[in-house]
Amino acid sequence: MPHKPARAGSGPQLTTRAIVLLSVVLLLLASYTSTLHAWWDQRRDIQSTKAEIVLRKQEIVDLNDQRGRWNDPAYVKQQAKARFGFVLPGEIGYRVIGSDGTVQGDVPTLDAPPPPSTTEWYDKLWGSVKESGRSPKAPGSTTAPDAPFKKKVLERQ
């Protein structure tokens, strides 16, 4: 059987073997791309978590420093004077009043009292009875992450 000479001007032809090889390469590329994307997302999550840990540690240091300052009686007196306008016995407190009758400078104010409860105790009791009759939440649902912390704070009071 004689060998056919290649046609002049015809481009490279794809064989079945080349198509299978190209398909395998594309499949591998697609699978590695998704894996690489997942790895990249995990690295980003790790970096953001590390940054949050550093931020939280700094907040802990600041809060411990603030707690230490509140243990100092001189700091407590200074805060009482600055925030509430308190004076010690024998001291004289002054307020500068403008020509329009308003107090000039920083005017210490107290926080507003909490609003009175509009529900009576028996309404709260009946609400808890109705809530206990409902079916439990889905097994996948969870409470807020700070719920144990709030429980511990309430137990201390």
> What Rg do the Cα atoms give?
36 Å
Question: Which shape, going by the Cα principal axes?
Answer: elongated
How far the N terminus sits from the C terminus, by CA atoms, comes to 101 Å
Count every beta strand, where a strand is a DSSP E run of 2 or more residues: 0
Query: How would you spell out the order of helices and strands?
Result: HHHH
What is the number of helices? 4
Structural class: mainly alpha
Short description:
The protein is an all-alpha fold and 157 residues long. Helix content is 57%, strand content 0%.
Folded structure, characterized:
The protein is built from four helices and no strands. Helices cover 57% and strands 0% of the residues. With 157 residues, it is mainly alpha-helical. It has helices at residues 16-70, 73-84, 121-132, 147-156. It is elongated, with a radius of gyration of 36 Å.
How are the elements arranged and paired?
Layout: H1 16-70, H2 73-84, H3 121-132, H4 147-156
Keywords:
about 160 residues, mainly alpha, 4 helices
